[in-house]
UniProtKB/TrEMBL annotation:
Signal peptide: 1-22
Keyword set, alphabetical order: Cell projection, Cytoplasmic vesicle, Disulfide bond, Endosome, Glycoprotein, Membrane, Signal, Synapse, Transmembrane, Transmembrane helix
Source organism: Drosophila lebanonensis (Fruit fly)
Protein name: Lysosome-associated membrane glycoprotein 5
Function of the protein: Plays a role in short-term synaptic plasticity in a subset of GABAergic neurons in the brain.
Membrane-crossing segments per the record: 290-313
Domain Lysosome-associated membrane glycoprotein 2-like transmembrane: 291-318
Length: 325
């Protein structure tokens, strides 16, 4: 009589712990999917053209004509209401448009996602998409937030391959009088290759940053080992990774973030084939640790539950002198 109750109880607990484990597994599997989807957002050519033309032709001429393309873009941007507002006027349009709240959001056209570039030197092969988010000073001495995509057609300007422990590659783009550059330095530490430094030299041209101070140049670095990979393997990571960038000029401490995605990088290459070596994925090592631990915890909990219910049932039936058996 009592034992049947406990058997039912035990099976219920068993089912519960199994579903918990299943949910854990599902969560772990789903965890990486949204991250890898986000960098694949296609670049809307019209949005880029609309934004560049609107910024260059703001000669205070006709405000009605500039608003027309904006409303046309909002219809396309409607399905994503969670577009990150990028420091462009946020409160001002609310007074002019008394229409309901969800249908507003006219200005923040999404900044295009960076496109993936491929670069190589004799010792470094690199593939990635990168976007900068940084603060800069405006003509009115205010701080503004700027977004900038590293162009995929940047050229390999310089590289250093002679040293067996430190190698670097420098990408360059932009007009001759204002060269932009991104330098990546790789180091060999304990038999692993790491990206030790990212340095950025970014002159703010009036085409992209019309409100920036004249001749303002952003110099930012990130010095922390990233992309750690065993020797003779290539680092691979599809999801977006954000690295903090700092600028230390005098007492000014500007800050920025570089977001890299779709990364495949390999330094200290010896063969001169262009193909990457065996992939070391940023997530495979993590998940292969996390999944067994989660499964182990779930199984341990299950065993504990079964044991406790069995002992309880046994004690009860013993105290009642095996009545129900
Ligand atoms: C983008 O612009 C082109 C030419 O201006 C036009 O043909 C096309 O329909 C536009 N696409 C969208 C999605 O607005
Ligand atoms: C990069 O790879 C291309 C294609 O294999 C090759 O022609 C070029 O020489 C390489 N560049 C450097 C700097 O090694
Ligand atoms: C850029 O950085 C600022 C400040 O950290 C943040 O508010 C903004 O959402 C970021 N923009 C993007 C597109 O990541
Ligand atoms: C590589 O560079 C490091 C640091 O600059 C230096 O200590 C080392 O001697 C160099 N190695 C070679 C082989 O040039
Ligand atoms: C290299 O490995 C040694 C021993 O395993 C360790 O003490 C040292 O901290 C490691 N160095 C780095 C930079 O990780
Ligand atoms: C900006 O650079 C140009 C060309 O080098 C120079 O003529 C001009 O004086 C500079 N402006 C400022 C404010 O430094
Ligand atoms: C990057 O900067 C942000 C804001 O300053 C800070 O909260 C975060 O901890 C930093 N991340 C790293 C890895 O230093
Ligand atoms: C590098 O490539 C050249 C010609 O493409 C070839 O002659 C040479 O043997 C290659 N070196 C190695 C180490 O594979
Ligand atoms: C749709 C459209 O007009 N796209 C153009 C945007 O601008 C780039 C370069 O400025 C052109 O290559 C695209 O054709």
């Amino acid at each position: 009589m009592f034992s049947t109750k406990y058997i039912i109880c035990t099976t219920l607990l068993l089912c519960w712990s199994l579903t918990v484990q299943a949910q854990l597994d599902a969560n772990l599997k789903n965890a990486n999917i949204p991250k890898s989807v986000s960098p694949d957002v296609p670049i809307d050519e019209n949005v880029t053209n609309a934004s560049t033309t609107s910024s260059t032709t703001t000669t205070a001429a006709t405000t009605t004509t500039t608003q027309e393309p904006i409303t046309s873009t909002t219809t396309t941007a409607k399905p994503t209401p969670t577009t990150s507002t990028t420091s462009t006027t946020t409160e001002a349009p609310s007074t002019t448009t008394p229409s309901p709240v969800p249908t507003t959001t006219p200005k923040p056209t999404p900044f295009p996602a960076p496109s993936v570039g491929t670069w190589n030197s004799s010792c470094i092969a690199l593939k990635m998409a990168a976007q900068l988010n940084f603060t800069y000073e405006t003509k009115e001495n205010k701080l503004a937030t700027g977004l900038y995509n590293i162009p995929s057609d940047a050229k390999v300007e310089d590289f250093s391959c002679e040293n067996k422990t430190i190698q670097s590659i420098e990408l360059m783009w932009g007009p001759d009088e204002a060269k932009h550059s991104l330098t990546l330095t790789f180091e060999k530490v304990n038999g692993s290759s790491v990206l030790s430094t990212i340095s950025i030299h970014l002159p703010l041209l009036s085409d992209n940053f019309p409100d920036a101070k004249e001749n303002e140049t952003i110099l930012m670095t990130h010095t922390k080992p990233e992309f750690s990979t065993p020797e003779k393997m290539s680092y691979h990571c599809t999801r977006v990774q954000k690295f903090n960038l700092t600028e230390n000029i005098g007492d000014v401490k500007a800050k920025g973030v570089i977001s890299v995605s779709q990364v495949q990088a390999e330094a200290f290459r010896v063969s001169n084939t262009t193909a990457f070596s065996t992939v070391h994925d940023c997530d495979s090592s993590e998940t292969s640790d996390v999944v067994p631990i989660a499964v182990g915890i779930a199984l341990a909990a299950l065993i504990l539950v079964v044991l406790i219910s069995y002992l309880c049932a046994r004690r009860r039936s013993t105290s009642r002198g095996y009545m129900s058996f």
